[in-house]
Amino acid sequence: MSGHSKWSTIKRKKEKTDGARAKVFTKIGRELAVAVREGGGADPASNSKLRDCIAKAKANNVPNDNIERIIKKAAGSSDQSNYEAITYEGYGPCGIAVIVETLTDNRNRTAGDIRHYFDKYGGNLGTQGCVSFMFSQKGVIVIEKEGNDEDKVMEDALEAGAADFSAESDDVFEIYTEPADFSAVMEALSEKGYEFVSADVSMVPATYSKIDDEESVIKMQKLLDILEDNDDVQNVWHNWDCPEIDDED
Q1: Which of 167, 163, 138 has the alpha carbon at shortest distance from 153?
Q2: What is the DSSP string of 123-170?
Q3: Are 101 and 85 in contact (CB under 8 A)?
Q4: pLDDT at residue 19, as a whole number
């Protein structure tokens, strides 16, 4: 089964999300709109990119009305805002691998911001491919342990088409899928009544790295925070084996 629990990272992202719902909704809304315009239209049955975005939106508790409104607006819009998907790769403090996925209408602004963040917090922006070889794309579905039986969740997940299952975390079950199977697995589990802590097609690292000194830990946390707060940034992936984050942090 999967060798490392990412719950400390997921928990941190969830707490952050809970305090900034409007920003999360805005970013997911942008993803939905771009998926409609670039992925092949407003029908999720024939647009796998849109189907995955809808699954992500639902896992983040975006209301169905909002999702439908965004899709209809994007399908019928004459708005020619050209959002460009650009991925940046680099290293945080102590050589932590970081991938930053963005949607931007101004690549110069975004590139300048991302480079500044890495420089400010003890990292450096690298070239395309410098760290992505350490990651593989997987669907990751997270379900709370409380109120759920491990054997039953594993059986349901594998029956739904999941590729892997982990119960290593104290708090959650982690279900992994092939990217193409993500939406179908999530829908099957949702139909069985499961609720999700998070669900997304993620970049999962093959190995994780620790940071030993406190100053570098603080810098790494600040780098992740400022990246996630940037309006152009959609996702941040990394291979930091990070410590549990207290609620007040």
Answers
A1: 167
A2: -EE--TTTTGGGEEEEEEEEEESTT--HHHHHHHHHHHT-SEEE--SS
A3: yes
A4: 54
Which of 79-88, 93-102, 128-137 has the weakest average pLDDT? 79-88
For 69, 137, 240, the CA distances from 53, given in Å and listed in that order, are 14, 15, 26
Kindly give, in sequence order, each residue whose CB lies less than 8 Å from that of residue 217, ignoring residues fewer than 6 positions away. 211, 242, 243
- Please report the sign of the dihedral spanned by the C-alpha atoms of residue 238, residue 240, residue 246, residue 249: negative
Q: Which pair of structure tokens corresponds to residue 241?
A: 């084996």
Q: What angle do CA 143, 233, 63 make, to 5 degrees?
A: 50
Task: Decide if 57 contacts 196 (C-beta within 8 A).
Answer: no
Phi-psi region of 235 (alpha: psi -120 to 50; beta: other; left: phi over 0): beta
Q: How far is CA 50 from CA 35, 44, 46, 187, 242, in A?
A: 5, 5, 9, 14, 32
Residue 229 to residue 241: CA distance in whole angstroms: 21
Handedness of CA 59, 64, 68, 70 (dihedral sign): negative
Highest mean pLDDT among 83-87, 88-92, 137-141, 210-214: 88-92
Question: d(Cα 26, Cα 182) in Å, to the nearest integer?
Answer: 22
Cα 218 from Cα 25, distance rounded (Å):
28
Partners of 217 in the beta sheet? Answer: none
**Four-CA torsion 58, 178, 144, 208, nearest 10 degrees:** -120
Note whether 36 and 47 are within 8 A (CB).
yes
Say what the pLDDT of residue 11 is: 55
